[in-house]
Specification:
22 strands
Length: 453
């Protein structure tokens, strides 16, 4: 048996191929099926099975496309209510794969329809467990994503209690040498304290993972529910896409038109300007949101955090070489379907953003309305300006009315990426008002925190 891990750093998403005697089973594949096809071809094998551990919230899976193109059966929990051809499995069922078998564990907690998969080797020994979003390295899955999405819904406290029993009565019953392969690593929003390690063993997690330590069920529930990260707008949308079966990915994106930029043009829908913040500030269309694209920043996550899944938008990119790359990143969360057209333009006429005079701000920062767009926990742990108003970026478009007064506004985060997005949101909400991005200068201010107005 060969196990291969595929990892998408941008979404901190891990998927897997299990190979035995010319057969491949995939676990939680991402939106683009081609890497899995290439793996199977390179090993002279056929993809016969796809396992979905649950309907994912943070990315779109290619399971339905793989089924249509390769004839692979899709295995899901019996209560998932999938809208595509599938094979229902329940706790303890065994699925053959070449010379090995896959044993299903029912592991609810992150979702009410979660399963994990134990790979049993040729000698009949448990070798690895693919834990989906139930067990991570150093953490367990969050229980607050299925209150309003999916075939089954459940309150977060109910799911937290399910997670307690999953950890203690499912995972801790496995042998210490069983390898642990989760669906996510550090940076994922599906948990709050994930390690940057991408695999482990049950034995290591038994002693080092906070969620697997001895504690009462009530204490576990309280600890699990505290401090979970924000929920992007796109999460419920992706659950529904994955439950119903997403449209096939068309990687050339030829169906999305390239639109010529015309100075003065006012599109009838939202504009997401993915150029660098410096280019955006020097000229952009009125009302555009600036979510800078780069190979390393979480571009798709932040687009999905501030743009709702029912909002169509035009995408602006700086150069042709980044057009398909940016669209592929949006496609990974299903947002390619929202793109009405793409404009490729480096320099643009239009609104010029206000530039902060840092010396003036240094001398009189108490005269500015300061908006801290970090998450509540970040703000509470390290407030920088005592009079700052904390409105998390993921909530800013809905809470702009809380930015009171007529004084100039300064926006800050922890490093400068989020503040560029937040500044563009407030520029859109308050045209003509001075809105400044503190950018990466916040790092200097953080060395002196906290400061009084």
């Amino acid at each position: 048996m060969t196990i291969h891990q595929f990892y998408d750093k941008n979404l901190a998403h891990a998927s897997y191929a299990i190979l035995s005697n010319g057969e491949v089973a995939l676990v939680d594949p991402g939106r683009d099926p081609q890497p899995y096809y290439t793996f199977a071809q390179n090993h002279g094998a056929k993809i016969t099975k796809v396992f979905e551990t649950h309907p994912h919230a943070d990315f779109v899976s290619s399971h339905f496309q793989i089924h249509k193109e390769k004839g692979a059966g899709i295995y899901v929990h019996q209560d998932l209510g999938a809208g595509y051809p599938h094979i229902k499995v329940g706790d303890g069922e065994v699925v053959p794969l070449g010379a090995v078998t896959i044993r299903v564990l029912y592991t609810p907690g992150h979702s009410p329809d979660s399963i994990s998969l134990v790979a049993v080797n040729e000698a009949g020994k448990d070798e690895a467990v693919f834990t989906g979003d139930s067990l991570f390295i150093g953490d367990c899955g969050r229980p607050d994503l299925r209150e309003n999405a999916g075939n089954l819904t459940a309150r977060r406290e109910e799911l937290a209690r399910m997670m307690y029993h999953t950890l203690h009565h499912r995972f801790l019953k496995l042998g210490d040498d069983v390898k642990v392969y989760p669906a996510h690593g550090a940076g994922s929003l599906c948990g709050k304290n994930l390690s940057d390690q991408l695999s482990s063993t049950i034995g290591v997690e038994r002693v080092s993972n906070w969620s697997m330590q001895e504690m009462s069920e009530d204490d576990f529930v309280k600890a699990l529910l505290e401090g979970q990260p924000f929920i992007p707008k796109y999460f419920g949308y992706d659950v529904r896409l994955n439950k119903d079966g997403a449209p096939d990915l068309k990687p050339d994106f030829a169906w999305i038109p390239v639109v010529a930029y015309q100075p003065g043009w006012k599109p009838d829908v939202l504009v997401v300007d993915a150029r660098p913040a410096s280019k955006f500030r020097s000229g952009h269309m009125p009302g555009a949101l600036n979510v800078p694209y780069s190979a390393t920043d979480k571009f798709e996550t932040w687009v999905g955090a501030v743009v709702a899944p029912d909002e169509k938008f035009y995408l602006v990119v700086e150069e042709e070489s980044s057009r398909k790359a940016a669209l592929a990143r949006l496609a990974s969360i299903g947002y390619d379907a929202l793109v009405k057209g793409v404009m490729v333009v480096s320099e643009m006429e239009g609104v010029i953003s206000s530039e902060l005079e840092h010396d003036a701000f240094e001398d009189a920062y108490g005269n500015y309305v300061i908006i801290d767009i970090r998450q509540e926990g970040e703000h509470a742990a390290g407030p920088v300006f005592s009079h700052a108003v904390n409105i998390p970026l993921s909530e800013l478009r809905e809470r702009v009315k809380e930015v009171n007064g007529e004084a100039p506004v300064v926006v800050h985060c922890a490093g400068g990426y989020r503040s560029a997005i937040g500044t563009s949101i407030l520029e859109r909400a308050f045209p003509g008002r001075h809105v400044y991005d503190l950018g990466n200068r916040i790092k200097t201010w953080m060395e002196r925190m906290p400061l009084s107005a």
